[in-house]
Amino acid sequence: MNLRAPPCLRDEEVCEGDVNRDDTIVAISTAPGRGAIAIVRLSGRDAFAMARAVSSPFPSAPRLVTRCHLHAPGDASAVIDDGLVTRFDAPASYTGEDVVEFAVHGGMLVSTLVTEALVRAGARPALAGEFTERAVLNGKMDLVQAEAVADLIDARSRAAHRAAVRQLDGALSRRLTALRESLLQVDALIAYEIDFPMEDEGELSRVRVTAACDDALERMEQLLATLPAAALGREGAVVVLAGPPNAGKSALLNAIVGERRVLVSDIPGTTRDAIEVFVDDSPYPLCLVDTAGLRSSDDTLERMGIEVSERYLARAQVVLVCGETVEVLERTVGAVRELTRGAVVSVLTKCDLGVEEHGVAQKGTEEHGVARNGTDLRFVRVSAVTGEGIETLREVIRRVLRDQVAPPAEDVPVITRARHEAALRLAAEELRAFRFAWEGAALPAPVAATHLRAAVAALETLIGAVDIEDVLERVFRTFCIGK
Predict the structure, then answer these.
(1) Residue span of the structural domain in which 249 resides
(2) Phi, then psi, of 355 in degrees rounded to 5
(3) Is 195 found in the same domain as 106?
(4) CA 206, 212, 215, 216 torsion: positive or negative?
(5) Is 471 among the domain residues?
(6) Burial class of 390 by CB neighbour count within 10 A (0 to 12, 13 to 18, 19+)
(7) CB-based contacts of 421: which residues, under 8 Å, 6+ apart?
(8) Distance between CA atoms of residues 88 and 111, nearest Å
(9) What pLDDT digit, counting tens, does each position of 254-302 carry?
(10) Is residue 107 part of a domain?
(11) Reported pTM
């Protein structure tokens, strides 16, 4: 091994087309910025030799954390840091290769100097996602599990976190593998039908093929049915606060969030643009949107804000219509329902002020619920000042969202990516085409079977059971460097 390799390459000098997967790669695996500790990771067949060139001493056994001096390659006097080094012997490592991890003091400089020393010792700067890509190529995980690593890193809510953890554990992979195996079994039954058409079991095998197709399609549809829940878990349900100016929308948003996030003023029209606040909640996170007051206005800037409000209303899952009196709520709910398909929840704000509740026809109309039309008005009474009704309102929002999109059963993994959806829909489409041709004898069995094999191929592409360079590139180049 040549320890006097060219000096550290800049990231832009590493061309993906020229990448050699036999290279030993290095990257900083922690986020940039000031911190207590930074991790520098090294992976490849020459990882141990390169690590020995820059650290002293080097661990004598795997998974033995060892304190060491880090220095320039082959020059122990050029000290970079006093850190910790751990080795992971192949194949018992994240990538399946020999891996070394250095824990050094945080900040930008130290970890960069250690990385530069390792590049001078012969390592190549890793591309985004290259460590996880090697884990897939070396059989440590499949492609779906690898994507779960990125989902886990990017998770902003407990719902997204739960989905990623289950996927990383292999729940989705096992479902997809079982689907693939069932289709291969169908292929075997077809082969039997082709080879032995006059056997006593021939008609029985045809029935079994149809039943197996129906079962596989049902399982595919069950997975595809999780897409709305996955989207809400990832992006959050859009909950828009709407109403006339000075109806207490901004104060209510602050009360739901639990801290002051938007400006609150008694001056009507303070909110001129929509303000989004992401709040984790169960079963789905909420994207709360404070909007400009709904009213007629000749002010150009205020009118622009109202137009933004209307666009948010058009895509809202839930709209909290705010008003100080029931009379105002009745009037506003009628206007809002023309602008949204989402569930409308009427919220009587500022109840701590003892505002007269005009329009309450009889006791009991203030039961917590969702306004179904302009005449059947039920509302939640809240106070942003005292906190009265805030938790009740959150429970109403949760109930509405559960009614709209039921959380998936615990044993059903969710589909989190467009790539998953596209592959499953293609597999289902090909399987339906096969079933139609098979059941109606519209095509000869060998020709009909091409649809079945296309369905199998779609599932294989999904889990990475075949060599698909373009898919690997699309998946892993969205990762962060060092993972």
Answers:
(1) 240-404
(2) -65, 140
(3) no
(4) negative
(5) no
(6) middle
(7) 224, 227, 415
(8) 20
(9) 899 886 655 444 444 444 567 888 999 989 999 999 887 665 555 555 5
(10) yes
(11) 0.75
